[in-house]
Design a protein that fits this description.
Layout (H helix, E strand, L loop, with lengths): L2 E12 L13 E13 L4 E18 L7 E21 L2 E16 L15 E10 L8 E10 L2 E2 L7 E2 L2 E12 L2 E10 L4 H31 L1 H11 L21 H11 L4 E6 L7 E7 L10 E6 L5 E5 L6 H14 L5 H41 L3
Antiparallel strand pairs: 1-2, 2-3, 3-4, 4-5, 5-6, 6-7, 7-10, 8-9, 10-11, 12-13, 13-14, 14-15
Length: 388
């Protein structure tokens, strides 16, 4: 595992605000020292551990000799540890995770006590975000993402008079990208919020995700059940010519070829491809359909098909799974979309959630109704009390 050490030193400045003095204010200056170590866990996964110290000087503070003026003698310091890991775990599965410990305090000031913590900076924070994007097939570019974000307690002001509570947030996303086109739906659930808000977030996320995937399931189901109608519509929508129906030419007195003869002719049509299945002709005009998987194909059964005349073994139609038509791309995506296998294990787990979504929506919907009922009922009682 390759390791590398690094160190850095940097200075920065930014203009200071008005200090109500005759002289122009000096810019606030920052000085940072950082040392760290980087590790390549694999060719596509790396991590970094860093220690840093940042000091801000020329911070505006009150002038003790004249409360109407401000002077630039304040100083603030931030130091801590940061750890992050990012990269591709498996093809299409990416992850970003990080943890930070931050000690940020006032080190010199005329208004605030030395040692006061800087406002809105948590001591502990953590984030994890992971996405899975389909790498091939008709759904290439489609992906899902999920993550958690934690922010610890932090001070609300520099005087440290009140504290903002920690919170945990869950994010989720559904996205699609192809070349320069990208579309995404993003969702957030804030677990430390009031139960009413958290319940609404869960209801919203469950409803949108269920609507997207149940629509996909319904669409493929309708197409299968009304195949004679949906097939020409998809060919027309994808501007793909409808291929002729493969048929066998009847030869009087001739029997169909043996299976081993058919398989030999199918192998000759696609050399090097493995036979994965075979469909037998159901009528005298029917054909043998032999499923093939070429080495470059990713689906376990392959998308290539050879249609052969049952009497002569002549190839009457050939579908190359490596060069599908636009309509075939749509047709090939039906099974993965319907059964949730298009993304492997992550989407199979997601489809369990989709199956439970009606129950989740029922529970969260009842809670929403209950809060509305509770909020409405006391007003009705108070109105009755003031009636003459």
């Amino acid at each position: 595992m390759p390791l590398s050490l690094y160190a850095s030193y940097s200075q920065s400045f930014q203009p200071a605000g008005s200090i109500f003095a005759n002289a122009l204010p000096k810019p606030e200056e920052g000085t940072q020292y950082e040392v760290g170590i980087k590790a390549d866990l694999s060719n596509r996964l790396s991590s970094t551990l860093a220690f840093y110290n940042l000091t801000r000087t020329n911070v505006t503070t009150a002038d003790l000799n004249n409360p109407l003026l401000s002077i630039q003698v304040g100083e603030q310091r931030s130091r801590g540890i940061e750890f992050d890991i990012s990269g591709e775990i498996l093809p299409g599965w990416n992850m970003i995770a990080g943890y930070a410990y931050t000690d940020a305090e006032v080190t010199k000031d005329n208004t605030f006590a030395v040692g006061d913590l800087l406002n809105n900076i948590p001591k502990h924070s953590f984030n994890l975000w992971t996405t899975y994007e389909i790498q091939s097939g008709g759904l290439k570019g489609f992906g899902i993402g999920a993550g958690v974000f934690y922010v610890g307690d932090r001070q609300g002001d520099l005087a440290n008079t009140f504290e903002l509570p920690s919170y945990l947030r869950t994010d989720a996303a559904i996205f699609y990208k192809r070349d320069r086109f990208r579309a995404a739906l993003n969702f957030k659930i804030k677990w430390n919020a009031h139960l009413k808000r958290t319940n609404f977030d869960i209801h919203k996320v469950a409803g949108i995700i269920a609507a997207v995937f149940l629509t996909m399931i319904a669409f493929t189901g309708v197409c299968w059940n009304f195949w004679d109608f949906s097939q020409p519509v998809i060919y027309a929508a994808t501007f793909t010519p409808i291929p002729p129906t493969p048929v066998s030419q009847l030869i009087k007195g001739k029997s169909p070829l043996r299976l081993d003869e058919i398989l030999k002719k199918a192998d000759a049509a696609l050399p090097g491809a493995a036979t994965t299945y075979m469909s037998l002709p159901q009528t005298p005009e029917g054909v043998f359909r032999v499923g093939k998987k070429q080495p470059e194909e990713t689906w376990e059964y392959g998308r290539s098909q050879v249609y052969l005349d049952q009497y002569t073994g002549k190839v009457v139609q050939l579908k190359n799974g490596l060069e599908p038509s636009r309509a075939d791309v749509v047709f090939n995506s039906f099974s993965p979309m319907h059964y949730g296998t298009f993304g492997g294990l992550p989407t199979r787990i997601l489809y369990i959630f989709v199956g439970l979504s009606p129950l989740i929506l029922s529970i969260t919907g009842f809670v929403m109704w209950w809060y509305r009922y509770k909020g409405k009922n006391p007003r009705e009682k108070s109105m009755k009390m003031i009636e003459p």
